[in-house]
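Suppose you are handed a protein chain with no further information: no name, no annotation, nothing but its sequence. What can you learn? This example shows the usual starting point.
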Amino acid sequence: MEENSISVSRIYKLETDSKLKAFADVAFSGIVVKGFSVVNGEKGLFVSMPRHQGKDGKWYNTVYPQTKELKQQLSEAVLEAYQGS
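A reasonable first move is to predict its three-dimensional structure. Written in structure tokens, the prediction is:
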């Protein structure tokens, strides 16, 4: 089975002083997943998975990578697109 490439189909940078720096849409395996976020945390930039707010006010991820390797690949692709744009 050939490994599918991961590409950022859109990155939208936010020009604010908030911790949220950008939104990204990522394409892989023939689908586009919208709603990745680039966040400036205590240890630097990281990628947050798409999520939604529940009726209880808490946030819940709507996308779960099956492996740590896939999560790392997604994060690297989004951060590379963010830093290169």
